[in-house]
Design brief:
The structure holds 2 protein chains of 2 kinds.
Chain A lengths: L2 H7 L2 H22 L11 H26 L7 H20 L12 H5 L15 H25 L4 H20 L11 E2 L3 E2 L2 E2 L3 H27 L1 H11 L1 H7 L3 H27 L1 E2 L6 H14 L4 H21 L4 H15 L3 H6 L27
Antiparallel strand pairs in A: 1-4, 2-3
Helix pairs in contact in A: 2-8, 3-8, 3-11, 3-12, 3-13, 4-6, 4-11, 6-11, 8-9, 8-11, 9-10, 9-11, 12-13
Chain B lengths: L2 H12 L18 E12 L2 E12 L3 E5 L6 H8 L7 E6 L3 E2 L5 H7 L1 E4 L11 H8 L6 H6 L4 H13 L15 H14 L4 E5 L7 H14 L4 E5 L3 H7 L2 E6 L2 E6 L1 H5 L2 H12 L1
Parallel strand pairs in B: 3-8, 3-9, 6-7, 7-8
Antiparallel strand pairs in B: 1-2, 1-4, 4-5, 9-10
Helix pairs in contact in B: 4-7, 6-7
Classes of the chains: A mainly alpha, B alpha/beta.
């Protein structure tokens, strides 16, 4: 194992987390494809897609944890980046429908025919090409985050003010996407997808491929964030979280760090959204609702802020509870969510995962045995 | 210029360039003076915090600045470090660096380090990591993301750990250090930046007598290699380290000289020492 790899996955929590994701990524598709439908071992397409959806949520939670848990930027607008990635994917899927739509127009999606569009709006060009759509999945949220961050961070907007304007951002996008003449399908959004890369979107193999892609994206996104947090830059980012002005005084360009971390996180959120849409089969402006972004923050808080796998675990946990509650006791879900958030804030500052994982850096002074150098301190000076 | 260089320069631009390495050495002090503060005035909502303040600091000097509350000590530090812009006057670091045109990080990079009144070490980082964060060198995101500390930086960390006496605490979380240790760590962080000029704000407030003594030794050992400006209320401490004392009053210099000369100055007795003895 190379030193880089060892640093990345050497820590126990990370190793356990990755092992679990890999296991899920292998076992779930096998259980879906191999046993006959009806056998006790068979996993329905619905369940697999549900777990796949959770994985994209987990990736979104990891992205939010990077900016909130490590950099101290409480973004209450990350679901907007998620939805933008989803819309980019949705546009590709709409173009793939081709002449099979209800109105049979060879180029225009159904909703455009319905709204009397004569030709494709300029921003829909290129989305018939998969590579272009995938590029936009990263570029659109990234550019928006960059421009937003450029103004916000350079004006030194921080704390609750920043949180509020991120809410305003996602709310404004919601209102915009609800408009029919924006050209994104208005309040119906985009649905009735048929193909992705020439494969039928509802075929078991396609679903498995999307599921595996979600697992792989989660793993790679996690590792990228982990690399960042372990690097010297990661320490600078955490220093910014703890004392921004102090970090500036030591000579770091705080705005630049925040801007790029925020942008990277938005790109990850966009990728998560792009994997989400083909699995749930629809994207509409309700994804931009301010409450969605707040929910993501709750996932992270419940799982364990400042621990990437805690964030991912929180996303799985809360969403499993949500699926269960909204089926069994639908009217109580929001109360349960609120209660959960209060309990975690008051009693579990390090989240559910923080209960299991012991504090890494012991608060005790060194005993007779010298402190063992931890593997992820590349700058440790040879003693 | 080949393509690789273009890409590299582009990255440096995009990732917040300005490593400082290609600029002329700031703070040319060949005339024996490291800091020129001349006729600086600052007003906050009509209150004159600094009133035509003029002050010179020599290379390698250890200067103590005293004065009653509201005399403008902290504002003076703020002006030198770029936190506050003066209404008028000039501030030069050496003969070539105009401090009034630089931002806070640029001033830190040019070689002026400031220790705040309250210890502000990074509590969640280890002592070692605190020093590594403060190490002089390329601080762009691109660099810190992909490069490790250079051997020279690691050696410098070792050296500073010894200087500030925290060698045994290197792997401890800074949050659990004692108050005095945090102050030394912070001075160590300043030293990591290889500053030409150190501004130290109330270093011994809240320290035990042993810690005060240790801090005096530390600051005396730094003078000569660095220029040090200490703002302090503790007169005993000032007496124990001071060679030259500057007394500020209502935003300008009231008196300057040796501790004894200053203490016997009638103006000083009236506004400062007199008040303290009441």
């Amino acid at each position: 194992m190379g030193p880089l790899l060892k640093n990345l996955v050497g820590e126990r929590g990370t190793a356990v987390f990755l092992a679990i994701v890999v296991c899920i990524g292998v076992i779930v598709p096998v259980l879906h494809l191999v046993p006959e439908p009806g056998s006790a071992l068979h996993l329905s397409g619905y369940t697999m897609t549900l777990i796949g959806k959770y994985m994209t949520y987990a990736l979104l939670a990891v992205a939010v944890d990077l900016v909130w848990g490590y950099c101290g930027i409480l973004s209450l607008g990350h679901a907007a980046f998620f939805a933008l990635g989803g819309y980019a994917m949705g546009m590709y899927l709409m173009r793939q429908i081709g002449p099979r739509g209800v109105y049979g127009d060879p180029v225009l999606p159904d909703f455009m025919v319905f709204l009397n569009y004569k030709e494709l709006p300029w921003f829909w060009h290129g989305f018939d090409m998969f590579w272009f759509a995938m590029l936009m999945v990263a570029v659109v949220p990234g550019v928006l985050a960059f421009v937003f961050g450029w103004f916000a961070f350079r004006s030194r907007v921080t704390g609750v003010y920043l949180s509020i304007i991120t809410q305003a951002l996602t709310y404004a996008l919601m209102l915009a996407f609800f408009r029919n003449d924006m050209g994104f399908g208005g309040n119906n959004g985009m649905t009735d997808f048929k193909d992705i890369l020439g494969a039928a979107i509802n075929a078991p193999q396609t679903r498995v491929a999307l599921f595996v892609a979600s697992a792989v994206a989660l793993i790679l996104g996690y590792l990228a964030c982990r690399y960042i947090t372990l690097s010297r830059a990661g320490r600078v980012v955490q220093a910014i979280r703890d004392s921004e002005s102090r970090t500036r005084f030591i000579g770091y360009r705080v705005e630049s760090y925040k801007l790029w971390i925020f942008t990277f996180s938005a790109v990850l959120a966009g990728i998560a959204g792009a994997l989400y849409v083909p699995q749930v089969g629809i994207i509409n402006p309700s994804e931009f609702q301010p409450i969605n972004s707040i929910e993501v923050v709750i996932w992270v808080a419940v799982g364990g802020r400042g621990m990437l796998y805690g964030a991912a675990a929180g996303a799985l946990l809360v969403n499993y509870a949500k699926t269960y509650f909204t089926a069994a006791l639908p009217e109580y879900w929001l109360y349960a969510l609120g209660l959960l958030f209060i309990v975690v804030t008051l009693f579990l500052p390090r989240g559910v995962v923080g209960l299991i994982v012991k504090e890494k850096e012991s608060a005790r002074p060194p005993t007779s045995t010298p402190p063992t150098p931890t593997p992820h301190k590349p700058e440790a000076v040879p003693a | 210029m080949n393509a690789a260089q273009v890409v590299k320069q582009g990255w440096q631009k995009v990732f917040g360039a300005g490593t400082g390495s290609d600029r002329p050495m700031p703070g040319d002090a060949s005339h024996g003076t490291i800091l020129y503060v001349e006729d600086i005035s600052v007003s906050f909502d009509g209150f004159r915090a600094l009133n035509k303040l003029t002050l010179y600091i020599d290379v390698g000097e250890l200067r103590c600045i005293i004065g009653p509350n509201g005399a403008g000590k902290t504002t003076m530090m703020d002006v030198i470090t770029g936190k506050t812009r003066p209404d008028s006057g000039s501030a030069w670091f050496g003969t070539t660096t105009d401090l009034l045109t630089l931002t806070e990080p640029e001033i830190a990079e040019a070689g002026i380090g400031r220790k705040f009144q309250k210890p502000t070490v990074f509590e969640h980082h280890s002592v070692l990591q605190n020093l590594a964060l403060a190490a002089a060198g390329n601080k762009t995101l691109w660099h810190t993301l992909f490069k490790k500390l250079s051997p020279a930086q690691s050696a410098r960390i070792d050296e500073v750990l010894v200087t500030v006496g925290l060698k045994d605490e290197r792997n401890l979380r800074a949050g659990i250090l004692s108050h005095g240790q945090k102050q030394w760590l912070e001075i160590g962080m300043l030293l990591m930046q290889d500053p030409r000029l150190l501004l130290v704000d109330e270093p011994v407030a809240g320290m035990t007598p042993q810690e005060v003594e240790r801090t005096a030794e530390l600051l005396l050992s730094l003078a000569g290699k660095h220029s040090v400006v200490v703002v302090e209320h503790d007169m005993e401490f000032v007496r124990s380290i001071a060679r030259t004392v500057t007394v500020l009053h209502e935003g300008s210099v009231l008196a300057e000289g040796s501790m004894d000369a200053v203490q016997n100055d009638p103006k000083v007795i009236e506004v400062y020492l007199g008040e303290a003895q009441k």
